[in-house]
Amino acid sequence: MFQGFxxxxxxxxxxxxxxNNREWFTAHKQEYLDYVDRPLRELSQQLxxxxxxxxxxxxxxxxxxxxxxxxxxxxGRGPYKDHMWLVLEQPHEESLAGRPALYFELAPNxxxxxxxxxxxxxxxxxxxxxxxxxxxxxxxxxxRQIEKSKFTLFGAEYKRPKGDVGKLLNPWYNRKNIxxxxxxxxxxxxxxxxxYGEILEAFRFLMPFYQYFDTLAGDAPPKEAT
Length: 226
Fold this sequence. Notes:
Strand order of the largest sheet: 1-2-3-4-6-5
Oligomer: single chain
Order of helices and strands: HHEEEEHHEHEHH
Shape: globular
Number of helices: 7
């Protein structure tokens, strides 16, 4: 059962950030397994069980990141990640593409959780805009709830805006991908079992966001995507 992270987890992530090489990691691998990987997997499993109990029809599955970077994509960086994450998602063919996902991320200087729709295809982005054009009130309700909450909207914006649908929805309308997140320092609740409850409460709060974007694939193709 998840008991919270410890200062050892933070220290390890700082360590691998500044000593990103095989020799250092080999000497500290057990610290990674004990203080980062094990509690992250315990947290992921508890969140998965709770979300599948609350939303059994969605059939969430979990994915916990590996610390090893893809050797084909190092781009001058070291072979190890200095931040780790878990994701709850529904099964689909391409990893994270085509559906939103709930996430928790751990880094040496922060932790973060929320819901993201990464790698949204141009077709799905067009469906997203077309749905706003047809029925802006549906997303406006979600946008207002997010504005009142601790979450912040994120996502890459188009260099040229796709349209003007008003102050509230423009930030949602003109993004290539979209998500909401909450970031905090690695302190306080981070070191306690209550972190699980905080994240679970957040995931439940974000379900209207998740389900709104999860259903986009079923919309008819808009004219601009044909």
